[in-house]
Structure formats: structure tokens, C-alpha cells
């Protein structure tokens, strides 16, 4: 699934830009398990400011999120739309915006057949990033993947992106109990999205 914010026009490969890909739950908003009611969606502190900083720096921001709760029948598509409208609205109040929103609604145990398939978009598979790159004109190898799970890091690493683990959401626990055994390790471990963005912007500044 692609959010309506994403452009359908591919950019000339010679002008492709680096971007920042953000996981949603645990990175942008509080990790609540399944967001099965609008009242359970809460932006994490500092997220609006962090995304606004990326906007001001000219770095496209794309949210890439697995939403298997939709496939499992825990909530309807209308609620997912409502949640994302709330997210955009709250970000806008802080002068921030996202440039694209990419959703994987699939799961092998999906109740509805249309969601029960072996997709290439459920992270750590790379379909969401590749779709965003094609539609927004992005250079994946120069981009960043930020998330609180190792599936986010593995997804980013698979396309050559620079990976950042945030310690919000599941991040701190994953860093302690899952990360040490993983072949993929983050390029940076951040306390939260603000810390991650500061590191990204400093890194980009050195390049330029």
C-alpha cells in the first residue's frame, strides 16, 4: 500500500537524492502493540522537531511501516487512515511533514485472502524502500533507515543504506537481547529520533 503523499513520477536516476526512512511504531509514536483505536496513537516527544529539521535540511522523509494488524483483522483500513491523518496533523502543528508513507498490510496468517501472500514489502524485505525510491527519486545507498527493531536495520542494510537504531519502543530491549547475536549492526545507536536526526545531519554536513 502506498499513501497518497507519494509521487507517482520517478525522478531521473542522475538526480536521485538521499532520504531518511522512518519506522512508525516505536520510532515516531509510542509503541503500544497494535494501534487498534485512535486514542492509542501518541507521538513521541521531540519527533515533530526532528522531522522538521530533516525538512529544513532538504532531506526527504518517508515512513515505512509493517501493519499486520490490518491483515489479522484487528482493525479496519479506515482506522489506519485515521491514524495517519492524525499523525500528519500533529506533525503539521510542529511545522513538520513526511514526503511519503508506505505500508505493508500483509501477513501469512491474514484473515482476508487479499492480505495473505508472500509479499516483498514486509520488513526486513526491501519492497517498501524500493517503491519509495522509484516514486520519490531516491538513492537508497545514500539514504538512512531509522527504526527500533532489527527488522528495520536488516531492511536498510539490504539496500546499502546507513542504519540507525533508536532506543525508544522495542529498541532498548532489542539492543540488549537480540542485537548482540545479529550479523547486521547499526551504524549508530540513538536515544531517540531527535538524537538520530542530529547524527544524520552532522554526517551529511561533513559530506558536503
Which key features would you list for this structure?
208 residues; alpha/beta; Rossmann fold; 7 helices; 6 strands
What is the structural class? alpha/beta
CATH architecture: 3-Layer(aba) Sandwich
Task: Could you tell me the CATH topology label.
Answer: Rossmann fold
Number of folding domains?
1
What is the tally of beta strands?
Answer: 6
Distance between the termini: 35 Å
The outline comes out as globular
By DSSP (H or I, 4+ residues per run), the number of helices equals 7
Give the uncertain stretches in residue-range form.
Answer: 4-9
Strand order of the largest sheet: 3-2-1-4-5-6
- CATH superfamily placement: HAD superfamily/HAD-like
**Overall mean confidence score, pLDDT:** 92
Task: Give the helix level as a range of percent.
Answer: 25-40%
Give a description of the structure.
- With 208 residues, the chain is α/β, with parallel strands linked by helices.
- The chain has a single domain (13-207), classed as Rossmann fold, CATH 3.40.50.1000.
- 35% of the residues lie in helices and 12% in strands.
- It contains 7 helices and 6 strands, in the order E-H-E-H-H-E-H-E-H-E-H-E-H.
- The chain has a 6-stranded parallel beta sheet with strand order 3-2-1-4-5-6, with helices on both faces.
- The chain is globular.
Amino acid at each position: 500500500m502506498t499513501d497518497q503523499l507519494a509521487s507517482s513520477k520517478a525522478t531521473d536516476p542522475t538526480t536521485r537524492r538521499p532520504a531518511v526512512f522512518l519506522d512508525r511504531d516505536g520510532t515516531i509514536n509510542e509503541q503500544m502493540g497494535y494501534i487498534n483505536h485512535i486514542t492509542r496513537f501518541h507521538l513521541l516527544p521531540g519527533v515533530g522537531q526532528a522531522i522538521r529539521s530533516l525538512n529544513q535540511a532538504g532531506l526527504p522523509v518517508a515512513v515505512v511501516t509493517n501493519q499486520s494488524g490490518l491483515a489479522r483483522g484487528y482493525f479496519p483500513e479506515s482506522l489506519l487512515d485515521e491514524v495517519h491523518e492524525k499523525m500528519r496533523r500533529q506533525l503539521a502543528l510542529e511545522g513538520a511533514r513526511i514526503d511519503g508513507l508506505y505500508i505493508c498490510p500483509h501477513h501469512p496468517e491474514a484473515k482476508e485472502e487479499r492480505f495473505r501472500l508472500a509479499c516483498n514489502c514486509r520488513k526486513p524485505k526491501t519492497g517498501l524502500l524500493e517503491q519509495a525510491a522509484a516514486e520519490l527519486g531516491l538513492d537508497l545507498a545514500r539514504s538512512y533507515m531509522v527504526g527500533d527493531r532489527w527488522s528495520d536495520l536488516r531492511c536498510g542494510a539490504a539496500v546499502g543504506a546507513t542504519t540507525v537504531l533508536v532506543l525508544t519502543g522495542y529498541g532498548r530491549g532489542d539492543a540488549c537481547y537480540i542485537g548482540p547475536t545479529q550479523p547486521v549492526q547499526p551504524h549508530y545507536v540513538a536515544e531517540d529520533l531527535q538524537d538520530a536526526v542530529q547524527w544524520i545531519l552532522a554526517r551529511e554536513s561533513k559530506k558536503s
